[in-house]
Design a protein that fits this description.
This protein is mostly beta strands and 338 residues long. It has a single domain, classed as TolB, C-terminal domain (Neuraminidase), CATH 2.120.10. The strands form nine sheets. The chain has a five-stranded antiparallel beta sheet, with no helix packed on it. A four-stranded antiparallel beta sheet has the order 4-5-6-7, with no helix packed on it. The protein has a four-stranded antiparallel beta sheet with strand order 8-9-12-13, with no helix packed on it.
Length: 338
């Protein structure tokens, strides 16, 4: 089936990713990111294990990399010269439904830089800020101001599930020294409320840092030195969670059951797979069983999203969307030529 219209028309390929049907895959409460490598492989996390899965464009599982993370969440691919790296955000907690019960696992929040063959080469330390005297550090997303795109190599980390900061680390010495933080109070956008996704926008003359301020239903924009520039989206966004780029267009994953496509001036062009009504049903994004324990929902249907969480687009403009729910669902939107 097809969704969208005009230049933004896609074939909906349901359950695109061929994930092995293990008990952990069926019972894991998936909330992974998605990324695309320079070679066109699509990378996401296993629904119930801290393992990276690499897929071909047709959904075939090519390989699996085990990690030492507690939970795989944000995934960013960056290049340094001819080398390619994965930046992985681990918020430190995950849930898996085992034998009808929901079991939770906890560990430290962390950000790990990894080679494409699974070797960890750097871990970014949690900043020594007073805000962390109480409460957790739970990073959700990473953005890199890549040198190949004219940037300085700085790394930005969103603590979306923790203290609602975005932290900046320097790569001038390749050791990830902490530089500073922003929290939304710098401008008229207001303090961040779940800065879930971050992204470096290079579509214009000067790169900008976009922050998906999910709890405030907006996107906040900063320059690459952390100076506030503007905020937008409250009129047409409900739950911005992450970003992908298709040429001059920005695709925003909205947790409340849709994608939003914006133009280069941050204006809404259209929605894809809009299904907001599902978010008001009991137990969303899952479905309660007889004991009111969350189980995989029976409400999934082609052409409509349930809970878009992680997302990426490839060079051809195809979109890959991973959803937040028990058992997960990864959908491919294959772009249709106008």
């Amino acid at each position: 089936m097809q969704i969208g219209s005009g230049a933004h028309r896609y074939e909906w390929i349901d359950n695109w990713a061929q994930i092995p049907a293990s008990a952990a895959a069926k019972g894991g409460w998936a909330h992974p990111g998605v990324a695309v490598t320079a070679g066109g492989e699509i990378v996401t996390f296993h629904p119930g294990e801290p393992a990276l899965l690499f897929f071909a464009a047709d959904g075939r599982l090519l390989r699996t990399l085990q990690t030492e993370l507690t939970v795989g969440h944000g995934i960013t691919v960056s290049q340094e010269g001819t080398d390619e790296y994965l930046w992985l955000a681990d918020p430190g907690s995950r849930a898996v439904r085992v034998d009808g019960e929901l079991q939770r696992f906890a560990g430290p929040g962390q950000v790990v830089k990894m080679t494409m063959d699974g070797r960890a080469v750097l871990t970014l330390e949690r900043p020594d800020l007073a805000a962390y005297n109480e409460g957790k550090y739970a990073p959700t997303s990473v953005a890199v101001n890549e040198e190949r795109q004219g940037g300085n190599g700085d790394v930005w980390v969103a603590d979306g599930y923790g203290k609602n900061y975005v932290h900046r680390y320097s790569r001038f010495n390749k050791a990830g020294d902490y530089v500073g933080s922003i929290n939304g109070a710098e401008g008229d956008g207001g303090a961040f409320n779940c800065p879930h996704g971050i992204w470096v926008d290079t579509r214009k003359g000067e790169p900008e840092l976009y922050v998906a301020d999910r709890g405030n239903r907006q996107i906040q924009v900063y320059d690459m030195d952390g100076r506030y520039k503007r905020s937008f989206g409250k009129e047409f966004l409900s739950s911005p969670s992450g970003f992908a780029r298709d040429g001059e267009f920005l695709i925003v994953a909205e947790l409340r059951a849709r994608l939003a496509i914006l133009d280069a001036d941050d204006r809404l062009v259209c929605y894809l797979g809009d299904n907001a009504a599902v978010c008001d049903l009991p137990g969303w994004p899952n479905e309660p069983d007889e004991q009111n324990v969350p189980r995989r929902t029976s409400r999934l249907e082609p052409g409509k999203f349930n809970s878009p969480h992680g997302m990426a687009a490839d060079a051809a403009g195809n979109i890959y969307v991973a959803e937040w729910l028990i058992g997960g669902r990864v959908t491919k939107l294959a772009k249709v030529a106008p």
